[in-house]
Amino acid sequence: xxxxxxxxxxxxxxxxxxxxxxxxxxxxxxxxxxxxxxxxxxxxxxxxxxxxxxxxxxxxxxxxxxxxxxxxxxxxxxxxxxxxxxxxxxxxxxxxxxxxxxxxxxxxxxxxxxxxxxxxxxxxxxxxxxxxxxxxxxxxxxxxxxxxxxxxxxxxxxxxxxxxxxxxxxxxxxxxxxxxxxxxxxxxxxxxxxxxxxxxxxxxxxxxxxxxxxxxxxxxxxxxxxxxxxxxxxxxxxxxxxxxxxxxxxxxxxxxxxxxxxxxxxxxxxxxxxxxxxxxxxxxxxxxxxxxxxxxxxxxxxxxxxxxxxxxxxxxxxxxxxxxxxxxxxxxxxxxxxxxxxxxxxxxxxxxxxxxxxxxxxxxxxxxxxxxxxxxxxxxxxxxxxxxxxxxxxxxxxxxxxxxxxxxxxxxxxxxxxxxxxxxxxxxxxxxxxxxxxxxx
Length: 441
Fold this sequence. Notes:
Elements: H1 2-18, E1 25-31, H2 35-51, E2 55-61, H3 65-77, E3 84-88, H4 92-97, H5 105-111, H6 123-128, E4 139-144, E5 146-151, H7 152-157, H8 169-182, E6 187-191, H9 194-205, H10 212-215, H11 229-243, E7 247-249, H12 258-263, E8 267-273, H13 277-283, E9 289-292, E10 310-316, H14 322-335, H15 338-348, H16 355-364, H17 366-369, H18 375-380, H19 397-412, H20 418-439
Parallel strand pairs: 1-2, 1-3, 6-7, 6-8
Antiparallel strand pairs: 3-10, 4-10, 5-8, 5-9
């Protein structure tokens, strides 16, 4: 018996040596990034997994941003939610209204004793994702802002200086006419995101309110007011420029046709998210791409305000174990490291979410070696954000944006004037807000 016990003891010892001393705690992360961005996201998660042995972050692609948010809400109601979900900035109001569903990141980090210095994050990022007391509710991850891309080769063919982009909308019109009249390209410019870039950011750059209660930051009961003189003026111009062949509409939401029009050299200029930088460079194989801030109306404002953010953050959901939250907090600490953030920013074109990551890029010579890669950072950090330029935060903003797109298309078709289209968008959008608030009261 003693001999058998020895063999049993030896066997157990060998088994223990051959297997981990404990099982890793799995932290499920639902996200909305596909293709190259999805691969890079998985690389980030793997970097954390390789850095320690206690926890394993498992990324799961759940479709588009709206699909991911919808899936997370449904999963929470069924008590099958992930620990972490990536939610685009448009969904911030929805997440804030989801009482009992969210474990605020500032509270998570404090509860778990992880370092959390809000001063280290870029101010526009902190401001957007914080509550009225300045507490950050979700972990900043992939923040972006819109910029302008332009074709330097077409500029040269049109007799324009390829190193000088138009700064104002008056110059945009002038440059576009020269480009089209010279035959250098079929159109002057196209764009993605009519609502985000040409309505929300248009209002912010010119210090115009997009809605009441500081663009929704003041809480429930806010209303849209973006049918202001600046947006009416701009939509009128877009209609005129479309009729003249200077501007080509790229489609609703992200403008699926916009980037192809630019990379095929059909249109000389293109406005889109800074996060599209890598894709633009990869696809624009036959010409040199220039980068510039968004234009502004110098007869409305002498110096434009900062642009506003897009992208997404990582929200932690309630209902998981303490061990899972321990790992989530450590993962967020890992994500905040300058090396991790700088690598993500430089690969994708998303903003570096911390000052340290930006400074690391400067030390590495990244911005000097990649001219224009800091345009988005300089634009969003332009001055101190005002109540009109810190962003827009309304419940169910996704549906409201769809309404704006549909009204813009009606205007382009000649069915409505710019004023009528924007008035209708505001009226319909406010009904969406009222319905959302009623369902969450």
